[in-house]
Design goal:
It holds the Pfam family Smr. By secondary structure, the protein is an alpha/beta fold. The protein folds into five domains: about 200 residues, Orthogonal Bundle (MutS, DNA mismatch repair protein, Chain A, domain 3); about 210 residues, 3-Layer(aba) Sandwich (Rossmann fold); about 80 residues; about 80 residues, SH3 type barrels, CATH 2.30.30.30; about 80 residues, Ribosomal Protein S8, Chain: A, domain 1. About 50% of the residues lie in helices and about 15% in strands. The protein is built from 24 helices and 24 strands. The strands form five sheets. It has a seven-stranded mixed beta sheet with strand order 1-11-12-13-9-14-15, sandwiched between helices. About 5% of the residues have low confidence.
């Protein structure tokens, strides 16, 4: 399917497999990664991709999957299959740990039945056979050793060993103390020699203790003797150890026989663990590259949206750089893309990104592109990348390219993706260009899909005049002289040879001589391409700006509609509430009048009684017509009741002795001017003084402006899209006006985003003494994207 054999490595697919392999926990999982190959069956690919996608969602949004112990079960099952062979203690312990992991995984997905349907297929109809685990746990303890009570015989043997060892130790301790008392022993304690407990005895005293000499020190000064009375006890312990070993072998053999009927099930468990490890590794890699599952298509086509090269993406993550996304479409009408543009402008990366992502999808891997991308199925992928000259095969660079072109022309069809880097290079351009054009014509006639990168002008002209072949170029900023790494289809691009040479400092005389040597026609074409590239960049920038404006307009429109709906809803609520209150007042008034008339009749129209009832009636009715008086200190009641303060009056500020002119009045607040300084004071915080002669015209103009400001001012400010300093400056202006005009609150629309602007604004507002509290808007009307600042 892939030609030549090293094409996958040239495209970077081998490196992708290495990165996935590093995510595996088991050797079996790594072996499965090594076997990854592009597939052609659509249903199979769909299943593989959905499994990786579901596992990625599980890792990101669900509880951790219990995969603590992923040990290979298949080799142990094959070992147990042979009659007469038994598994060791460590083998059974490995089986037990793996079984516990298998059972935990099955229970995990059973608890989430229907949530991950494609992952559930991995263990469909696979039972939890607890008899295996129970049988092993009856014999093997939590440390992986045979239990002391695994059988009655083993328990008896272990008890005998313990008793014999205790007796032997007691005897040798007695002999050792006696030898020490007599001065026969060397420095040191009891020691082990040849697996036997011995006494270190001085060489000159070794005949004084009956026993067997097992060893001597390097100097010959010390002999290590096992006393005669202990020798027989140690032999007894040795015999019991052999009996213990035989009994353990018998127990393990019996347990292996019990396990043998379950060997097919153990192999199924092994396959489950391997697949879970494999899919988990693919999902972890997808998270690293921000991979998504694209749409699959039956036809041979490619439509990538915001695609990025995965290896480049991982490499840039460490340095903090970003990868420019790629958008490209290859289909029936736009079969072959001829990419031109400057050197180091991203042509080869663009082509490799398309080829690598196609290989990844057909291998069941998620790709770093939007989920709206659409990928078809290709039967073959041919690639000519790099220099494949060979001394052994007597192939030059161009010969190697030609041999591939021959293979491509003979074997490619409409279900083939062809990738050719620097098409036609390696020989004289006068001959290489026409040959490349002829090969391209043949491939196009066969309906081949592909990407070709080139600098040849004849290929650009051929692409612009041939149906099925489309020019494309990598954008270049010819002002800053740097590539933008953005692919745009429709027009070819200039190589910017002279511009790049000039930027790196090549001698101007050399450049002028080179320009004289190229043909006038070629020079005009290249100049036209440069101008076209500049126009394309301007159009692209304009499109970006228009798109941003459209998004901002749509957002403002949505906010406006939401605000109108909110006002309309509140308007209805207030009117309904007022109507209900009015009805309640009328009902109460009617009752009050009726009760008053009844009382007057009952008192037989007594004048005093009638007068009192009239006063009560008037007082009750006045509750709904007059505002309650605000209690103020006695000393200040006189000022507020007897002296009215109007615009143009002068007042004195107690405590400072300053005199100020009243330039604005709003409810109980006064806007004062002390020279160029403006401040807001309550009526009861100032004392009126005699008017001063001031310029009436200026005051009248200012007062008129103030009145206009009050009439037009809305206590709402929108700072979305502003930088922090500009937003705070704008808020400060609105806040000052809201305080001066006596508004109870200020609405600040800042948007949600990452919450950074919201945090700065709230920290800033908390420094204002006039701000009493801060609240979010109702969640249905903007929530955390809007802050209400309530003013004192």
């Amino acid at each position: 399917m892939i030609y030549p054999d090293n094409a996958a490595e040239k495209l970077g697919f081998t490196d992708i497999k290495k990165l996935i392999k590093a995510k595996c926990l088991s050797e079996a999982g790594k072996e499965l990664v090594d076997k990854i190959q592009p597939q052609k069956r659509l249903d199979q690919l769909d299943k593989f991709l959905r499994q990786a996608h579901e596992f990625k969602e599980l890792l990101l949004n669900d509880a951790p999957l219990p995969v603590d112990h992923l040990y290979p079960l298949k080799p142990l099952a094959e070992k147990a299959r042979v009659e007469g062979v038994f598994l060791s203690e460590s083998d059974f312990f490995t089986v037990l740990l793996s079984l516990n992991t298998v059972f935990a995984i099955i229970r995990y997905f059973n608890e989430r039945s229907g949530t991950y349907p494609n992952l559930e297929v991995l263990f469909e109809h696979l039972p939890i056979e607890k008899n295996i685990a129970v049988a092993i746990e009856r014999v093997i303890d939590e440390k992986g050793k045979v239990r002391a009570n695994a059988s009655p015989a083993l328990a008896a043997i272990l008890a005998s060993i313990a008793k014999a060892e205790q007796e032997a130790r007691k005897r040798i301790d007695q002999v050792f103390r006696t030898a020490q008392q007599n001065g026969w022993t060397a420095d040191g304690n009891l020691t082990i020699r040849d697996g036997r407990l011995c006494i270190p005895v001085l060489a000159e005293s070794k005949r004084k203790i009956k026993g067997w000499i097992h060893d001597e020190s390097a100097t010959g000064q010390t002999a290590f003797i096992e006393p005669e009375e202990v020798f027989h006890l140690n032999n007894q312990v040795r015999d019991l150890e052999f009996e213990k070993r035989r009994e353990i072998v018998r127990i393990l053999t019996t347990l292996t026989d019990q396990l043998r009927p379950y060997i097919p099930l153990l192999i199924d468990y092994h396959n489950l663990l391997t697949k879970v490890d494999f899919v988990r590794a693919k999902a972890l890699f997808a998270i690293d590259i921000e991979g998504h599952m694209p749409e699959l298509a039956k036809e041979a086509s490619v439509s990538l949206v915001n695609a990025r090269h995965p290896l480049l993406l991982l490499n840039f993550k460490g340095s903090g750089q970003t990868v420019v996304p790629l958008n490209v479409t290859i289909d029936q009408t736009q079969r072959i893309i001829v990419v031109s543009g400057p050197n180091a402008g991203g042509k080869s990366v663009c082509m490799k990104t398309i080829g690598l992502l196609q290989l990844m999808v057909q291998a069941g891997l998620l790709i770093p592109a939007d989920a709206t991308s659409k990928i078809g199925i290709f039967n073959r992928i041919f690639a000519d990348i790099g220099d494949d000259q060979s001394i052994e095969s007597d192939l030059s660079t161009y010969s190697a390219h030609l041999s591939k072109m021959k293979y491509f022309s003979d074997h490619a069809d409409a279900k083939t993706l062809v990738l050719i880097d620097e098409f036609g290079t390696g020989t004289d351009p006068m001959f290489g260009g026409p040959i490349a054009e002829a090969v391209l014509e043949t491939l196009n006639r066969k309906g081949v899909r592909g990407v070709v990168t080139t600098h040849y002008s004849n290929l650009k002209i051929f692409a612009s005049n041939t149906e099925g072949i489309e020019n494309a170029s990598m954008l270049f900023d010819n002002v800053a002289m740097r590539p933008l790494y953005i692919l745009q289809t429709g027009k070819p691009g200039s190589s910017y040879a002279f511009e790049i040479a000039q930027k790196i400092g090549l001698n101007n005389a050399i450049l002028q001589a080179a320009k004289q040597k190229i043909g006038a026609q070629q020079k005009r074409i290249d100049t036209l391409l440069v101008d076209l590239e500049r126009d394309k960049k301007d159009v692209y920038d304009a499109k970006i700006a228009i798109a941003q404006k459209e998004r901002q307009l749509a957002r403002l429109k949505a906010d406006n509609e939401q605000l109108q709906a909110y006002l309309e809803d509140n308007k209805k609520t207030i009117i309904n509430k007022a109507k209900e209150e009015a009805r309640e007042i009328i009902r109460n008034a009617n009752k009050l009048v009726e009760n008053t008339i009844s009382d007057i009749k009952a008192s037989q129209a007594d004048k005093q009684k009638t007068k009192l009832l009239r006063q009560q009636l008037d007082a009750e009715l006045n509750k709904h017509t007059d505002r309650p008086a605000i209690p103020v200190p006695k000393s200040k009641q006189i000022t507020s009741q007897t002296v009215s303060i109007e615009v143009g009056d002068w007042v004195k500020i107690p405590g400072t002795g300053n005199e100020a002119e009243v330039i604005g009045v709003s409810k109980n607040n006064l806007v004062l001017a002390v020279g160029e300084l403006r401040m807001v004071k309550k009526r009861n915080e100032v004392e009126p003084i005699a008017k001063k002669n001031t310029a009436k015209a200026s005051r009248t103009t200012y007062h008129a402006n103030m009145s206009a400001d009050v009439a037009n001012f809305r206590p709402e400010v929108d700072v979305r899209g502003m930088r922090t300093e500009a937003a705070l400056y704008e808020i400060e202006k609105y806040l000052d006006k809201a305080v001066m005009m006596g508004f109870p609150s200020l609405k600040i629309v800042h948007g949600k985003g990452d919450g950074i602007l919201r945090r700065f604004i709230r920290d800033y507002l908390r420094k204002y003494g006039e701000v009493t509290r801060l609240e979010d808007e109702h969640p249905d009307r903007g929530g955390e994207g809007i802050t209400y600042a309530y003013l004192d």
